[in-house]
Amino acid sequence: MTGPAGGRPLVGIVMGSDSDLATMDEAGRVLQEFGVAYEMTIASAHRSPARVEQYVSEAEARGIRVFIAGAGAAAHLAGVLAARTVLPVIGVPLAGSTLGGLDALLSTAQMPGGVPVATVGIGGARNAALLAVQVLGTADPALRERYRAYKARLADEVEEKASRLAGRPEPGMVPPHQGGRAR
Ligand code: RP5
Predict the structure, then answer these.
(1) Which candidate, 41, 24, 52, 2, places its Cα nearest to that of 132?
(2) Contact at 8 Å (CB) between 46 and 71?
(3) Taking the model in full, what pTM does it have?
(4) For a Cys-Cys bond, which of 72, 102, 147, 173 suits 96, CB 3.0-4.6 Å?
(5) For ligand 1, mutation pick of 18, 19, 24 (most atoms within 8 Å of CB)
(6) pLDDT digit string, tens, across residues 69-82
(7) Would residue 138 be called left, alpha or beta, if left means φ above 0 and alpha means ψ between -120 and 50 degrees?
(8) What is the CA radius of gyration of the chain?
(9) What is the C-alpha to C-alpha distance for residues 88 and 81, in angstroms, rounded to an integer?
């Protein structure tokens, strides 16, 4: 378990296996960019249900305010966390199985009424972290402003891309000759 951004972890990132780590690390990187402290652990709804139970039962008292749960295949981790906590749970369906993550997407998103899991796209660890930042930002004006600045940067990047495209010669067109005859 780690809390690289310093301070008391506010986000608990849980994943079903170490084979999920490469994808879920992206969530940690985003939280770090926003200066949000997090912890990360492995617990499997199917292989180690007691560990999941213990983790979720202690997390709120430690200061965790939102969970991000990533799992693949018949992914029940986010749902099991949601069943055991009043904190918001963001589910990340992961593509590890022969079904490419569609199984995990449906298992994570199709929760019964009364027990929501906010599900991002397959492999969407980055969006999960951004959503966690937004959730925490509702009670943290400084974090909300950092998120606002992030959105502005996104828009700036699109402007830059559009400018580059506008300045590009059209495909197949020869650049116009400067001053008369071709050399
Ligand atoms: C899920 O099964 C895990 O979240 C992982 O995505 C998938 C495969 O796990 P490993 O067999 O690689 O440990 O529970």
Answers:
(1) 24
(2) no
(3) 0.90
(4) 72
(5) 19
(6) 999 999 999 999 99
(7) alpha
(8) 21
(9) 9
